[in-house]
Amino acid sequence: MHSFGKRKLALGSLFFFLGLCFGSWASRIPDIQSNFDLSEGELGSLLLCLPFGSLIGLPIAGWLVHQYGSKVVITIGGIFYAVSLALVGWSPSPWVLVPILVFFGLLGNVMNIAVNTQAIALEDDVGKSIIATFHGLWSSAGFVGAGVGAGMILLSLNPAIHFSIIMGFSVLVLLTARPFIVKEKNTHAGGGLIIKKPDDLLLRVGMISFLGMMCEGCMFDWSGVYFKKVVMADPSWVITGYVVFMGAMSSGRFLSDLLTRKIGKIKIIRFSGFLIFTGLAIAVLFPTFWVSTFAFLLVGFGVAAIVPMSYSIAGRSRLYSPGVALALVSTIAFFGFLIGPPLIGFIADIFNLQVSFALIALNGLGIMILSSYRKEVFEVNTQKLS
């Protein structure tokens, strides 16, 4: 059996690889829109390919992980995921890009379930919570991916070359980490993804995650476009909003455990909603470069703790095992992440991007209300957290 340190490092590198691939894709969305001369509505339709692929991948991922184990799924699925990213860059037309994005979204969900299955198994072995750290690494990788994307733009390298370089690096990470990924024990007789009706607590936590993930997905896909079309930033600085958002979200996740011990999860979730609402409102009302940059920083800190805190509360459910509770909450949250980006495009096509971002700002108010109303629902599930 490999040591905890080596297993944690290997699994962390896989979370980093997934975040790097997604961050690389997000950093070049404005270029892909320009290359194919897409309107906001057309781009929104194109972005629907990822959620469609992810929805297809949801039951497939559960079955694959249960049938073959997460180690096999990570090894094979990871290579295909890296290759599909490169194919996105090499697509010669939107019609070719559509099925590739569907495949990219499908594989992303397969890998997400596989690596989180590994994380839960590792938690069981060491007896302490470590998932938040892995999610922080995913966010850090997105930040790095944005920075690399900015560098590629400055070097005038097109998305095809950019994504091919990321593919090569990702395959190297996979091959290096594979020997330290263990085969988890099957503890459930059912299929790989267990679906049950959530109770009041999990439904509440799931809705908070849904609103947070919707905001997160919108910021991933539309930050660059917002800085290009609304802020009117210089082309070499278009990616600034995305970089600042990812940096704040990444650092916020690494700090969330420390803050939890000081003020508690409920207060963190409520304050996170306030930051999301305030940041997006400022960006909409004052769309200048420096003000919007600061606003996106606030949104990044606001989004940071929502999912880790929600998962941590759900994992203490008295009605369901941690794995089942996390599956229920993450499934609800996942839909927010998927529908947010295309919704932005459709609303922007009818009105404009500022109206779209103003509506997403209301998610922050929703999080504040859900975490404030009947707080006692959360109390039992937060008493044992540390």
UniProtKB/TrEMBL annotation:
The keyword Cell cycle does not apply. It is a multi-pass membrane protein. The chain crosses the membrane at residues 45-65, 72-90, 96-115, 136-155, 161-181, 201-225, 237-256, 268-286, 292-311, 323-344, 350-370. Its main location: membrane. InterPro entries: MFS (IPR011701), MFS_dom (IPR020846), MFS_trans_sf (IPR036259), MFS_Transporter (IPR051788). Residues 7-376 form the Major facilitator superfamily (MFS) profile domain. Pfam families: MFS_1 (PF07690). Keywords: Membrane, Transmembrane, Transmembrane helix. It is found in: Membrane. This is MFS transporter.
